[in-house]
Amino acid sequence: MDKNPPDSTGPVHVPFGHIVANEKWRGSQLALEMQGKIKLVFEDGLTVVDFYLSSRSCILYITEADLVAGNGYRKRLVRVRNSSNLQGIVVVEKTQMSEQYFPAIQKFTVLDLGMVLLPVANQTEASCLIIQLVQEQTKEPRKNPFLRKKRAVLSEPFLLRTVQQIPGVGKVKAPLLLQKFPSIQQLSNASIQELESVVGQVVAQQIHAFFTQSR
C-alpha cells in the first residue's frame, strides 16, 4: 500500500485541480465551504501539512486556537520550511481573540522563515483564498505568485497585506513604505530616522519596535 509515512512532508500525488486535505478537516466549516467548488481528497497521515495544492506546494493552517495555545505551531512551519520537497503557504486566523498573538507569528513566518503568510478572518474567507490558490495554480503554475522560490520577496499584493498588519501602518502608509523599502528585510533593517521621513516619528517608532522587540 503506497501510503505516506506519518509526519511525511511529501511528495504527495495531487490530481490536477484537486486539493489533498488532512483527514482532521473532514466535516469542518472550511472543508464544507470548499466542497462543490473544488475537489477535496482526504488523506490520513498528514500530521504536518493541512492541505496540499500540488505535490510541491502546501498550506499550513493556523487556527485561532493554535495561536492562543502558544508556539506549538512553530515546529510544523520549520519542518516544511526545511523540506526540499515543499513550498509552504501559512494561512492564519487573525481574529479579535488571536490578534495580540499575530505579530509574533508574522515575524517568525515572514522574517525568520521567509515564508508567505496570509491572514484570514475566518474559515469562510480561508476557503475562498484556498480555492483562488488552486485556480491560480491550474492556470499557470510558473507564474503563480505564491509559489516562487522559497526566499524570494513576497509578491506585491501579499507583501502589501503583510506590511498593513504592522501596528500604526494600515492601508495608507503601507504603499509609501514599500516604495522606499521594497522588501520586508529592508523594512525591518531600517532605522527610525529613515522610517520617519516616510511615516513620521510616532509610527516610525512603532514599526522599529515591532521589528526589534524580543519575541
Write a structural description.
By secondary structure, this protein is α/β, with parallel strands linked by helices. It is built from ten helices and six strands, in the order E-H-E-E-E-H-H-E-H-E-H-H-H-H-H-H. The protein has a six-stranded mixed sheet, with helices on both faces. Helix 6 crosses helix 7 and helix 9 (192-199) packs across helix 10 (201-212). The protein starts with 17 loop residues before the first strand and ends with a helix. The relative contact order is 0.11.
Which helices and strands, and how do they pair?
Elements: E1 18-22, H1 29-34, E2 39-43, E3 51-52, E4 57-62, H2 64-69, H3 73-82, E5 87-93, H4 102-112, E6 116-120, H5 123-139, H6 156-164, H7 170-180, H8 184-189, H9 192-199, H10 201-212
Parallel strand pairs: 1-2, 4-5, 5-6
Antiparallel strand pairs: 1-3, 3-4
Low-confidence stretches: 1-7, 147-154
Element-by-element helix/strand order: EHEEEHHEHEHHHHHH
What's the β-strand tally? 6
Mean pLDDT, rounded to whole units?
81
What proportion of the residues is helical, as a percent range?
A: 40-55%
Secondary-structure-based class equals alpha/beta
Principal-axis shape: elongated
How far apart the termini lie comes to: 44 Å
Strand order of the largest sheet: 2-1-3-4-5-6
Radius of gyration: 18 Å
Strand content range: 5-15%
Task: Tally the helices.
Answer: 10
Largest sheet properties: 6 strands, mixed
**Topology-level CATH name of the largest domain:** Rossmann fold
